[in-house]
């Protein structure tokens, strides 16, 4: 397969996944914002959401740090339909579609049509008042389109290189996003936990819901929600589809399928990351510091992405 | 009575607007359809085309604007007997054009015998000295030709233009057919319509047949300028349908006198490039140095016969409007045959006598730049204002050699959906002729329609639309009783 084609497939999948995760984050914050809380707490929640995508300064630049009140609608506009914010849902879905268009011949007609129809429909939805009146419905739609895109990919595409690059992109991005959500929410919890304890339940429940993990948590632990178990579920449980371990299992698996003459080091790198999660224990992680562990993990994911690029997508030398 | 040939109804005196034989079944069917059904089907077609992303980019619009080419649901129908004649004429014409290209890049007999003046070749910007005495596989230069045919007067066919560089539109021919079959399957059950879907197979076969000598299992690729090119959809479509890679210049590189593509498993040798990139941009070392669309060193590999380009470099010299008037002579010269298809009478403004005739008759003529294409830079006398005509007069006087003129043809018209129902609109036809070891083509081609009332410009860049084209093997029993 052409390296450029692989590059487009990889990024098509990453942007689709990123749009979904942004929608998940925003949605869960809309839910928590409905809980009784002070204005400062509410603002803190939205700021944390911006922090997940490392967008606080970009946001402040646009809407002014001190000028006027912090508006929920501003954050939604910024994270959903700001064309200049590369992480906004609109920018992600547009980029996913542009990447798909560049390799539409490699995709099945169905996969291309889903990407294209999502992009067309997105414009219609953003032009309507839906985001103002019922943002949750919009986020549901984004999630649904992402599910559809993954399903159609698995259901119609030949199991060759193309699908492995798509899957690799999906899981690398998901690993990154889950780690970010977890990291920021734990940070937020530290500050909030001092005064209120009874609110904890809602806080962790919301986090779990944002990664479709609430029902899974109940099934797995059959017990009250504790931060340690939330961290364990989202990091170390291979049977939880959005956990770091589950993502890394798929990353390793797809990398093996794609193996070429120069990718051995990259496979080893991914394998080590996978092993750390597979044989890690949550007590050790909490002792070493969750934030520290997640920061290192995010750096490794970034490095892994670069290695994939060098080995397959934009090979330097002829 | 209209002053043009109507494809569907016979307007001649005494025929009383009778529907022509080959349109009867369709016309009967159309009368049975309720306007609501048709409106719904047309809306459905629009939606489907948009969802599938069958769009083209319009130059001059905002960057990245994508538009649909309007699709008309009334087919253009041609009886098989007429097509058979046209097919013979097309094969003859394209064969002569390929022989002409081989000749001018080798012995140049056609110049030596005085049929075409030498300066018409040498001073033509499309003549590529780099191609002189280079042998190409099977001596074929124009592997894919799109020949524009119109019908005028009492119904005679004329060739308007030979497109031998990177003719486009074949994807619309295929998608239009797919759409018609999806919208109106019953029509295809009731009429015996020649299929066209095998075009990509024929194209791949043709491309493989012209691989460099000694290559048994050639790797074919389609080369595109990229996703912002107006015909990108078509490039991607053809690559997918043939099951070959769609490459851009940056995906290819030259090493050790061969062309390779960069793949996830290392370099892979490429043997045949169906390129949809103009000559000028193919190789920055040989042609335009600022081209980022090409492959440095491609020309030298090509000249060494180690890769095939389809179409060949330098075919533009044969489809140029200044060469067009000589095509009938080429057919006689190379094939010793009489041309089957008519040329439109053409005034070559470089000749003083022709020029003075043209200047005196501008309001009745169509004037074209010899190197123009796509409906840009032309004057349609009868449809132009005095100021526009004067403007062209000055241009003609300043550079007579840059223009040709032709009588304004009353192009035939086909019933077409317009705002207030159905009305005749002018059409042309672009069949696609494949040349390799043999000459082949699928029945019919792309019918383009000028949607403005009275408009004669069918180019999609100028607001033209398309229709499905039926070669009707034979009309079935009239009436279509079920």
Feature tags:
heterodimer; A: 318 residues; mainly alpha; 2 domains; B: 482 residues; Rossmann fold; 5-stranded mixed sheet; 14 helices; 30% helix; globular
Query: Which strand order do you get reading across the main beta sheet of chain B?
Result: 5-25-24-21-20
Distance linking N and C termini of chain A? 15 Å
Largest interface (CB within 8 Å) is between: A-B, 28 and 25 residues
**How many structural domains does the protein architecture of chain B include?**
2
The share of residues in extended strands of chain A comes to: under 5%
Instruction: Classify the helix fraction of chain B into a percent range.
Output: 25-40%
Shape of chain A: globular
Total domain modules of chain A: 2
Radius of gyration of chain A, whole Å? 20 Å
Query: What percent strand of chain B?
Result: 15-25%
Count of alpha/pi helices of chain B: 14
- Strand tally of chain A: 0
Can you tell me the residue ranges of chain A where pLDDT is under 50 for at least 5 consecutive residues?
Answer: none
Q: Can you write the helix and strand succession of chain A as a string?
A: HHHHHHHHHHHHHHHH
Task: Find the structural class of chain B using helix and strand composition.
Answer: alpha+beta
Q: In whole angstroms, how far apart are the ends of chain B? A: 35 Å
